[in-house]
Write a structure and sequence with these properties.
Rossmann fold; alpha/beta; about 50% helix; single chain; 7-stranded parallel beta sheet; 17 helices; 6-stranded parallel beta sheet; globular
Length: about 375
């Protein structure tokens, strides 16, 4: 076993950076001399990753929203491909989510004889059925975080392994609300709402003001409510500006610390995405919302295969939490749906039981399963 492996990774946003950081921790346990470089964020850097570009460069969602950044993103991919095929040729490339960026890169690297692994199966079963064909061409192996995915991929000739969700091993089954509140300087009594308007600039642009306008309406009904807002560092000031514009001057805006915010809250108003699964693992009731450019919305709706958008609902195969999307995501509707959780303790208790079952389902020895699969790929 070669302990001095060289891997390349690309993680394209905050959630991918978090997953990749946990994966790198396991990989370094198997290959202590491992070196890794590519595109990543602070969680990966803390594991010794050499970030040639920051992951936020790729953090764009939507069809219209990506256009202003498209030239820069394509230039980064071209430069990265040249580097990986030349002076920094890796033993293995791992694309962490970000399929629109990674699939083309993986396909090119695979054609050059570089082994490729894709971590997090794209949700072709919910949104983009054609993606699975691109995935087959791009990846030698797929590491899946949901248990039903390997069988679906096998039908399309894609080799895959269920490794569980890394966060299911990090987030406790019973989060300590009181400890989280102390850590954030919040009083242990009283209701706290966590507001998570997304980790991409385009998400903040379309969602933050709606969320804070909803918070103003909630505060009008319950003056004692407190709001905590974890923010990606690069977006902290933009989020604070939206809060001030809405007239919320006492909202607690954090730099990162989303897990503490979710542990501390009684309910969360949250952008659709990976963070909704984190909220479910923290057993927190939520209202999932999304809003984007109208043209992007029309395109995405045509690709939707299931009635659910939020991951907790997709995994449950029913609407266990509300989803308010596009025009339905009005400040008043968001406020009403969020406050409804505070008045329904039995409903919250039932939801927590569902989320506990989900937590057990996703809890696996991810580091060992992932490194075992990667080692087999390396051995051919």
């Amino acid at each position: 076993m070669d302990a001095t492996r060289r891997f390349a990774l690309v993680a394209g946003e905050a959630s991918g950076d978090l997953l990749a950081g946990l994966l790198l921790q396991g990989l370094k346990g198997r290959w202590p001399g491992l070196t890794a470089g590519g595109i990543g964020g602070p969680s990966m850097v803390r594991q010794g990753f050499d970030a040639w570009w920051p992951s936020e460069k790729l953090s764009v969602r939507g069809y219209v929203e990506v256009l202003p950044k498209l030239r820069e993103i394509l230039a980064i991919r071209r430069q990265l491909k040249e580097r990986l095929m030349g002076e920094s040729r890796p033993d293995l490339f791992i694309g962490v989510d970000a399929p629109d960026f990674n699939f083309g890169l993986e396909t090119a690297l695979k054609a050059e004889g570089i082994r490729t692994v894709h971590f997090v199966c794209p949700s072709f079963w919910a949104w983009r059925p054609k993606k699975v064909m691109k995935l087959r061409a791009a990846a030698d192996h797929v590491l899946c975080i949901f248990p039903f995915e390997p069988e679906l991929l096998a039908r399309h000739g894609v080799a895959a392994t269920y490794v569980g969700h890394p966060l299911a091993n990090v987030i406790p089954l019973v989060p300590d609300r009181a400890a989280a509140r102390r850590a954030l300087g919040l009083e242990e009594q009283g209701d706290v709402i966590a507001i998570l308007p997304g980790s991409r600039r385009s998400e903040v642009q379309y969602l933050a003001r709606r969320f804070f306008d909803a918070a103003v309406r909630m505060r009008a009904q319950r003056p004692e409510l407190r709001f905590v807002v974890p923010a990606v560092p690069a977006l902290r000031e933009a989020i604070a500006e939206h809060a001030r514009a809405a007239g919320l001057n006492d909202v607690l805006i954090l730099e990162g610390r989303s897990h503490e915010a979710l542990a501390a809250c009684d309910a969360t108003l949250i952008a659709s995405g990976t963070a909704t699964l984190e909220a479910a693992l923290f057993k927190r009731p939520m209202v999932i919302a999304y809003n984007m450019h109208w043209l992007s919305w029309i395109i995405m709706r045509r690709k939707q295969l299931q009635p659910w958008v939020g991951l907790p609902n997709i995994l449950s195969q029913e609407f266990v939490v509300p989803e308010l999307l596009q025009d339905a995501a009005t400040p008043q509707a968001l406020a009403d749906a969020t406050l409804a959780w505070l008045d329904a303790p039995q409903r919250v208790q039932a939801l927590q039981a569902r989320f506990t079952d989900m937590h057990h389902l996703l809890q696996r020895d991810t580091a060992r399963l992932a490194t075992d699969a990667i080692e087999k790929v390396l051995e051919g």
